[in-house]
Amino acid sequence: MAVGIFDSGLGGLTVWDAVHKRLPDMPLVYLGDNAHTPYGVRDADDIYDLTTAGVARLFDAGCDLVILACNTASAAALRRMQERWVPQGKRVLGVFVPLIEALTERQWGDNSPPREVAVSNVALFATPATVASRAFQRELAFRAIGVDVEAQACGGVVDAIEEGDMILAEALVRSHVDALRRKMPHPQAAVLGCTHYPLVEAVFRDALGPDVSVYSQPDLVAASLADYLGRHPDKLGQGEEAVFLTTGDPKRVSSRATQFLRREIAFQPA
Q: Which fold has domain 97-215?
């Protein structure tokens, strides 16, 4: 039985890797829209159209449940998809909620009123589109009060990672952390609001310093998915083998993915 994982490019492989380690016997169908990455500089309608096309392809591949392993797609398209588009019997989940639940120390499905939490100053690092959507702040407000969020749009980081230019990616991360600190000198926690960013998580941690708690998504999403499937086993779709699909050049994407995950990954045309 297969679960789909969708991303605008290679960043969602960090979620794939965490889910695979948590649920090693569950086949996953991964689709990277590498032909149109990055999503973070696109407008909301464009992101919605690209995301629905990708998720529809995963539904066609036999997935009844799809994880949007892309914060930009989760921020700009998920709510609209759930309200207007997702077919009956299918489910699409995003990556924001597990992270916010961890940040606010709430259990999965806790629908109690928002309350004060341990952190009051939170730095959010995300793509320009995710920052513009204010989706993180909206979801956080459902669960916590009294939290000041300072968002930093990290232009260029996803592009550098997708191109494999990790020197440039590191330089950009340090520049964005410096810019954030000029607005919020002493954050208590930092949220890496893009699934590409775990690939440079060590740089974020070093630039932020040991006094800042860093929240990264892959392991949190994997834990939440395991919990969800335990309660909704019917959402395991058809499929018996792991599949990797891309809208880009399969050879080039496979090479880059293999470098990132340090294991051979073979993509097929979507």
A: Rossmann fold (3.40.50)
